[in-house]
Amino acid sequence: MTKIDLNSDLGEAFGPWRMGDDKAILDVVTSANIACGGHAGDPATMVETLALASERGVVAGAHPGFADREGFGRRLIPLSIREVEQLVATQTGALMGAAALAGARVRYIKPHGALANWAADERPVADAIIRATRAVSPELAILAISGTELEHAARVAGMTVFSEIFADRGYLSTGRLVPRTLPGAMIHDPAEAASRLIGYLSSGLMPTVDGVPIPLDAHSICVHGDSPGALAMAVHVRRELQKAGIEVGPFLQPTQENK
């Protein structure tokens, strides 16, 4: 592989509470998954983050999650399928409204946290996210965890879908991420993360904590913006990818609003 996108989950501040260094990370990544007011974010943060992304030519996507600020969207909320549709549609619509004010454009949807993990395993949940996305705008693409039900559902629906892997998360032999409560869930060493990614990009095989490496597709690499040392991780990963001859660029062509 000679080209890969680098994305990060951003816009996760709320009122006076700040999360991460979005300005600095937006100088490194090529796509930004922006919180929509569910697990994090507020109107001012959404508009500001979208404007910053647009100024830098970073492609913006919606990052809807469970309305659970206390749990940062990482706890499973047992919604009905209809409620999942409503959550995704309204949060994405809110970000698109903020984009209109910011002079930006929302190009794709990437579910957050527990919602993304739920959609990874449960096809009805994945289908609900696809229906909500198409209802809001058929032009929106899907960014899905590689090898999941969401990825498959988007393809069956004929949507534009891109697959992602994670720079700073461990993998199980099932293709799922190691739960954050277990050892090996997080990779904190930028050198280790970069080495693993370069090995994956040359072989197509992702190391796992409980078995042999597994094949995964990837158009994008996620570096979590809320992790300690997130900026150092993003900078190091990008530099090492480029040193290995891998171009870092967005999976979607930036529009006029993103330039």
From TrEMBL:
| Keyword presence, Membrane | no
Show the catalytic activity: 5-oxo-L-proline + ATP + 2 H2O = L-glutamate + ADP + phosphate + H(+)
Q: What is its EC number?
A: 3.5.2.9
Keywords, ordered alphabetically: ATP-binding, Hydrolase, Nucleotide-binding
Q: What SUPFAM superfamilies would the database entry show?
A: Glycoside hydrolase/deacetylase
Matching InterPro entries, A to Z?
A: Glyco_hydro/deAcase_b/a-brl (IPR011330), LamB/YcsF/PxpA-like (IPR005501)
One term of GO molecular function: 5-oxoprolinase (ATP-hydrolyzing) activity
Q: Which domain of life is it from?
A: Bacteria
Question: Function of this protein?
Answer: Catalyzes the cleavage of 5-oxoproline to form L-glutamate coupled to the hydrolysis of ATP to ADP and inorganic phosphate.
User: What family is it from?
Assistant: Belongs to the LamB/PxpA family.
* Name of the protein this chain belongs to: 5-oxoprolinase subunit A
Q: Which source organism?
A: Rhizobium aouanii
